[in-house]
Design a protein that fits this description.
This protein is α/β, with parallel strands linked by helices. It contains 13 helices and 12 strands. Helix 8 (211-220) packs parallel to helix 10, helix 10 packs across helix 12 (327-342) and helix 12 (327-342) packs antiparallel against helix 13.
Length: 369
């Protein structure tokens, strides 16, 4: 593994591995496809069509990341079954989801059907398939029952969630646990783990109602950025941080499908990256320059958590996973990607360079520790 051993060993592991990646047209999925393709994996995707003209998926397609790309809905069980069978996957990364809190208030049924029943469909397809050895189901730090504590949530904390999105992620974790216990643990053939990350940022995210994409849109339009909850604290991290954790977890699950890695895992940033929304806004505006500014949005808004953080000591201890980029590096990498896109630079080369830089930093940091 590159973040544990050498890049050569990681490439040797992934070369030719057949992977089904749900959510491959999305922000996280596109970054993960770039990374796995770089190491020689055969990637098959299943997801809804990408939204809008600006998206990282198109760059991943140009890079030749996908052996096949199925545009379909994980709420359709037959679509999921067919995509898994077509892929012949040995490893499944389940990232497809409805990922937005505010949208979940407007469409709770769609949110639950995607995040809960979609997960049921993926895991049931795995249960009936032949050849799958490892599954990483991605949920969220918001899966926990949030008591606004000032310490991080550990993997054995109760699932919960105030809003439909957060609650659906807690439900998804319960689905993963039930399938693990009912079908996979005793059989010892499929290792099923789940990954819970903090607020991820990075280039290529153009989703509505997300802080950094909203910031960049307004900056490019020459407008002040409206901010809803400037004092809310979140664990901010570059998208490559949790993805490196999911990758490390998949490798261990593949090697030991009946081993102790088949659990839930937190992949959150260090304490220095637990910052307010205002910290992020000011840092992005400063890094962008050109007079970028923000204003308080005083309108009425739905409930969003004021404080949330993760305890990732289990991943540090057992997976030898460590965050590689601090808060300032995360902001700089994110802003530089959007500036590169605005300047018309080659996003395939730019994205691949950021991935290379990230894993080089990760390897050096782990060797030092």
């Amino acid at each position: 593994m590159e973040d544990v051993v050498s890049r050569a060993d990681r490439e040797a592991f992934w070369r030719g591995k057949r992977v089904l990646l749900t959510g491959h047209t999305g922000f996280k999925g596109s970054w993960l496809a770039f990374a796995l393709h770089r190491w020689g994996a055969e990637i098959h995707g299943l997801a809804l069509a990408p939204e809008g003209e600006a998206n990282l998926f198109k760059a991943a397609e140009r890079a030749g990341a996908f052996a096949s790309s199925v545009i379909g809905d994980i709420r359709d069980r037959q679509v999921v079954d067919a995509a898994l069978e077509k892929s012949g996957a040995e490893i499944v990364f389940h990232l497809a989801a409805q990922p937005l809190v505010r949208l979940s208030y407007r469409d709770p049924v769609g949110t639950y059907s995607t995040n809960v029943m979609g997960t049921v469909h993926v895991l049931d397809a795995v249960r009936r398939a032949i050849g799958v050895r490892a599954v990483v189901a991605v949920t969220s730090d918001k899966c926990y029952e949030n008591n606004e504590w000032f310490w991080g949530y550990r993997e054995n904390e109760p699932m919960g969630g105030y809003d439909p999105y957060s609650n659906s992620k807690g439900c998804s974790e319960l689905v993963v646990s039930a399938f693990r216990n009912s079908y996979f643990r005793d059989a010892g053939v499929v290792g099923l783990g789940s990954g819970r990350a903090g607020n991820v940022i990075g280039g290529g995210d153009w989703s509505e109602d997300r802080l950094v994409p909203d910031l960049i849109r307004n900056i490019l339009a020459g407008q002040e950025v409206p901010i809803r909850n400037p004092l809310a604290v979140r664990p901010w991290q570059h998208v490559l941080e949790p993805l490196s954790g999911y990758i490390a977890l998949a490798e261990r699950l593949y090697a030991e499908p009946s081993g102790p890695m088949a659990e839930g895992w937190n992949f959150g940033p260090g304490a220095s990256s637990e910052r307010t929304v205002l910290d992020v806004v000011n840092s992005v505006c400063s890094a962008w320059g050109d007079g970028a500014a923000w204003r308080r949005d005083g309108g009425a808004h739905v409930h969003e958590a004021g404080y949330l953080k993760l305890d990732s000591s289990k991943a540090r201890r057992l997976l030898k996973w460590e965050p590689a980029w601090n808060f300032d590096q995360t902001i700089q990498a994110t802003v530089s990607w959007y500036k590169a896109e605005a300047a018309g630079k080659d996003l395939v080369a730019f994205t691949e360079k950021q991935i290379s830089d990230y894993f080089a930093t990760s390897s050096a940091q782990l060797e030092k520790n």
